[in-house]
């Protein structure tokens, strides 16, 4: 009897291993990447009813897919080591948290796994054909193109674009997360993701000087930290593998943050990152009754507004913190000085609340020019949003290592929140800032007429 039980147990293990009761993302080795893999596309369906156990689906079997709900396809990119994407499970669960939808993981790891990038790139159109066959069957069953959303990472962004072209841009939405740049930069619209590939296309560019695509590809293109080096990522090759992929992957983690309730990243439509840093674009270019665009899942809140533009495209910039949830909180620091001579330099501002929490912003991307009786408005970015500020400190610096130490005579300093314009603005008058010396003070409420 014991022997029979053991035999049945072994057979069950064998069956579950071969039939894959819960299909999982293909896991390959670096050896597979070296020898190369032939393309094989697996589609795995997750819903709120089967959040942790995927169901294998294909163009002849839609499984439990509910065609009356939104269907989101998640398409990964180049996999040079063969391992599954570390962010995939968080993205699936995050999407299901925010909306009752179908989430389909497009696993083309057999095809994407290779050390030769152009071998993976050459398979992107074939993956798109497989997805079209599946979507065609969804449409036969009563699905609407309006309800189809594709999230493509790196090469996956261009795959999403190819699918969108097959439907003449009628897919509901495409999100490109740092679309691949190599072999795609400078290509015509038919060979890459393009704003016309869906009813709404939003793109996050986080590595435009290496693995990502530099130019705009969507209706709204987000450039975190200017799209270049991301805070918290290694700056040199001494960072190992993270040096090569950290900036590129940051687009995914920024998108993930939009699925969580503790962080809504606001972006600012602007012609350039420099203009954004200089505070020239903080009203979003629209009437104040409109809110600025949000990064990630809720970026399509700007869809109707962008439709009114000709062309319906914009670039948006913002800064992030080094770690999750990445949010930064924007304030203006307005300074009027009464120095007889022009002073050029940077300002560091530190806020502290009654509980002892401290947050700091260094406004040093380029020297500010302080002239007598002229107001200079500096954009400060903090990684904490302190509701009730008890003390403020300022440090003025010219950046000079040698030479005299200067004073900045401040007639009035005003602090105002961009995220919460309804909050009382804080002022201080008649300050003298000695260069490189921290000056701490308690602010007072600004008179109403200054608001």
Short description:
The protein has helices spanning about 1-20, 30-35, 90-100, 110, 115-120, 125-140, 155-165, 240-255, 275, 305, and strands at about 40-45, 55, 70-75, 100-110, 150-155, 175, 200-205, 220-225, 270, 315-320, 330-335, 345-355, 360-370, 375-380, 390-395, 405-415, 425-435, 440, 445. It is of the alpha/beta class. The chain folds into two domains: about 10-320, Alpha/Beta hydrolase fold, catalytic domain (Rossmann fold, 3-Layer(aba) Sandwich); about 330-450, PLAT/LH2 domain (Lipoxygenase-1, Sandwich).
List low-pLDDT spans: 1-19
Classified by CATH, the class of the largest domain is: Alpha Beta
Count of discrete structural domains: 2
> What is the fold named in CATH at topology level of the largest domain?
Rossmann fold
CATH homologous superfamily identity of the largest domain:
Alpha/Beta hydrolase fold, catalytic domain
The helix/strand class is: alpha/beta
Q: In percent terms, what proportion of residues is strand?
A: 25-35%
Question: What do the pLDDT scores average to?
Answer: 91
The second-level CATH architecture of the largest domain is: 3-Layer(aba) Sandwich
Number of helices: 10
Number of DSSP E strands: 19
Describe this structure in words.
- There is one protein chain.
- By secondary structure, this protein is an alpha/beta fold.
- It folds into two domains: about 10-320, Rossmann fold; about 330-450, PLAT/LH2 domain (Lipoxygenase-1, Sandwich), CATH 2.60.60.20.
- The protein contains ten helices and 19 strands.
- A hairpin with an 8-residue loop joins strand 16 (about 405-415) and strand 17 (about 425-435).
- Helix 6 (about 125-140) packs across helix 7 (about 155-165).
- The longest helix has 18 residues, at about 1-20.
- Its main location: membrane.
- It is found in: Cell membrane; Secreted.
- Pfam families: Lipase (PF00151).
- It catalyses: 1-hexadecanoyl-2-(9Z-octadecenoyl)-sn-glycero-3-phosphate + H2O = 2-(9Z-octadecenoyl)-sn-glycero-3-phosphate + hexadecanoate + H(+).
């Amino acid at each position: 009897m014991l022997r029979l039980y053991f035999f049945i147990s072994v057979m069950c293990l064998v069956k579950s291993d071969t039939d894959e009761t819960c299909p999982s993302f293909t896991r390959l080795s670096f050896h597979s990447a070296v020898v190369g893999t032939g393309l094989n596309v697996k589609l795995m369906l997750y819903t709120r009813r089967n959040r942790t156990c995927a169901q294998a689906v294909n163009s002849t079997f839609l499984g439990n897919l509910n065609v009356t709900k939104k269907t989101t396809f998640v398409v990964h990119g180049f996999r040079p080591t063969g391992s599954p994407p570390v962010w995939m499970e968080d993205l699936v669960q995050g999407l299901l948290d925010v909306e009752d939808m179908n989430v389909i993981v497009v696993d083309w790891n057999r095809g994407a796994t290779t050390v030769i990038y152009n071998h993976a790139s050459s398979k992107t159109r074939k993956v798109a054909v497989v997805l079209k066959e599946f979507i065609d069957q969804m449409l036969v069953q009563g699905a609407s193109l309006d309800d189809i959303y594709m999230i493509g990472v790196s090469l996956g962004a261009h795959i999403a674009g190819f699918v969108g072209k097959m439907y003449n841009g009628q897919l509901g939405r495409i999100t490109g997360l740092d679309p691949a740049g190599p072999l795609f930069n400078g290509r015509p619209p038919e060979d890459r993701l393009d704003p016309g590939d869906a009813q709404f296309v939003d793109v996050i560019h986080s590595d435009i000087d290496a693995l990502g695509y530099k130019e705009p590809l969507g209706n709204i293109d987000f450039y975190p930290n200017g799209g270049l080096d991301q805070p918290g990522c290694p700056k040199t090759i001494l960072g190992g593998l993270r040096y090569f992929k950290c900036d590129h992957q940051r687009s995914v983690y920024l998108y993930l943050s939009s699925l969580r309730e503790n962080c809504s990243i606001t972006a600012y439509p602007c012609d350039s990152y420099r203009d954004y840093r200089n505070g020239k674009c903080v009203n979003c270019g629209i009437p104040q009754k409109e809110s600025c665009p949000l990064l990630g899942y809720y970026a399509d809140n700007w869809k109707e507004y962008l439709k009114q533009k000709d062309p319906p495209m914009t670039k948006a910039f913002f800064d992030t913190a080094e770690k999750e949830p990445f949010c930064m909180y924007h304030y203006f620091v307005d300074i009027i000085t009464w120095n007889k001579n022009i002073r050029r330099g940077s300002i560091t501002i530190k806020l502290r609340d009654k509980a002892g929490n401290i947050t700091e912003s260094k406004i040093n991307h380029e020297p500010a020019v302080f002239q007598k009786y002229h107001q200079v408005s500096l954009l400060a970015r903090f990684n904490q949003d302190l509701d009730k500020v008890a003390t403020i400190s300022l440090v003025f610096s010219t950046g000079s290592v040698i030479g005299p130490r200067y004073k900045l005579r401040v007639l009035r300093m005003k602090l105002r929140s961009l995220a919460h314009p309804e909050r009382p603005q804080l002022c201080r008058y008649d300050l003298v800032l000695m260069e490189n010396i921290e000056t701490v003070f308690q602010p007072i409420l600004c008179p109403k007429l200054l608001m």
